[in-house]
Amino acid sequence: MRILLINHYAGSPEHGMEYRPFYLAREWVRAGHQVLILAASHSHVRSTQPRVGPQHIEGVSYCWYPTPAYEGNGLGRVRNIASFCRQVWRDADILARDFQPDAVIASSTYPMDVWVARRVARAAKAKLVYEVHDLWPLSPIELSGMSPRHPFALLCQKAENDAYRDADLVVSMLPKVQQHMAAHGLDLAKLHIVPNGITLDEWDESRQEPVDAAIAAHIATERAAGRQVLGYAGSMGLPNALDVLLDAAAQLQSAPVSVVLVGDGHERARLQARADAAGLRHVRFFPPIPKRQIPALLALFDIAYIGWQRTPIYRFGIAPNKLMDYLMARRVVLHSVEAGNDPVAEAGAGLTVPPEDPAAVAEGVRRLLALRPEERAAMGERGRAFVLAQHTYPVLAQRFIDALRSVGAP
User: Boundaries of each Glycosyltransferase subfamily 4-like N-terminal domain copy (predicted)?
Assistant: First the structure.
């Protein structure tokens, strides 16, 4: 099969997030398919921006379209989106003729790329696939307060409705979207759920690196003082609800626990200043580390924390990457969430408490600290088994291919 994947924000191991397009594409290539990823040269989620033009990474072909740099979510980002879509639209006939795709996937988070993908698919007589990361415009409306009548929201709504009407296949990472999509015109026979997952390569011990020496030394000191480690690894933004974790840490000052946060994000400086001002002696922040160090870092945690804001948008489900890493590392997870699904509960790999409730988080920590070592080990094994069975990229890539073949792709 020849697969054209349009993802504005696609990344790679060289460039950083988003990783999902690369991991799926690499598995497809390994299975004998041909893949071309179209992406923008500038994305706010990448750590390194690529050079414009073609590139090949581990058998996956990319074409990086030149787009203007931007910061934040203002007009600069809108211009960036418009530039990318306009250029791919212009190249539709060339892509159809030269690459001859059997399937064209629109997967850029925002839904307007479905119009571009539809143009290519029609020219190539290929299957049109709409891949849903988040529900737009509902996500910016519910999470950021955008008016449903804002011109950008109206544009997104038109694109979402067109996607459900015209796509041969809709693939969603979120598992509880059926009612919403049906209300916007989707025939649910087209819908397949393919969540996020992990790549096994990163868990190959020969490819891993020891964790940063400063982090290892700090955790060793905390253990020598009789404290266990509650860890968080990932982005530090408002959606991650880390203020709740700091509030819980204030209630755990006398408990034998140390909180370690590793990562970066818009909120990190404020959170660190807040912890310092509150005198949270057993809370320590560290900068982000390379992905190859993540398994070694997680192995040092006794409990891994992941939290969410209380917001209605999560009724459609969640698909967090870092949770898959926690489970793969056999960590017991404290999950602060209210959502349409709960992988921690499904896996039996930890404890779930209500979101935005510091007292519940603190009590959850106490309960997990009180478990016998063999109980925690059993939870960790269940979490890893859950990921291996359902959330590795070889499994997910095959589910995607099976969904394509169910709608007649060769």
Answer: 16-197
Helix (H, G, I), strand (E, B) or coil at 53: strand
Tell me if residue 186 falls in helix, strand or coil. Answer: coil
CB 200 within 8 A of CB 206: no
- Same CATH topology for 2-197+392-406 and 202-390? yes
CATH of 202-390 among 3.40.50.300, 2.30.300.10, 3.40.50.2000, 3.10.25.10: 3.40.50.2000
Whole-angstrom distance, CA of residue 164 vs CA of residue 381? 39
User: Which residue carries 């349009």 as its tokens?
Assistant: 6
* Cβ-proximal residues to 189 (8 Å cutoff; 6+ apart), any chain: none
CA distances (Å), origin 102, targets 178, 244, 410: 26, 47, 7
Q: What is the pTM of this model?
A: 0.91
* The domain made up of 2-197+392-406 is a member of CATH 3.40.50.2000: yes
Q: How far is CA 194 from CA 201, 388, 403, in A?
A: 20, 15, 9
In sequence order, the β-bridge partners of residue 304 are 231, 333
CA 133 to chain centre: 8
Total residue length of the chain: 410
Q: Is the pLDDT of residue 20 over 90?
A: yes
Contact 366, 382 (CB under 8 A): no
Q: How far does CA 243 lie from the centroid of its chain?
A: 21
Q: Which residues of 292-330 are buried (b: 16+ CB within 10 A; e: fewer)?
A: ebbbbbbebbbbbbbbbbeeebbbbbbbbbbbbbbbbbb
pLDDT category at 47 given cuts 50, 70, 90 is: confident
Q: Cβ neighbours of residue 171 under 8 Å, at least 6 residues apart?
A: 105, 129, 130, 131, 132, 192, 193, 194, 400, 403
Residue 92 — pLDDT band, cuts 50, 70, 90? very high
Mean per-residue pLDDT of the chain? 96
DSSP assignment of 352-400 equals EE-TT-HHHHHHHHHHHHTS-HHHHHHHHHHHHHHHHHH-BHHHHHHHH
The residues that bridge with 198 in the sheet, in sequence order, are: 392
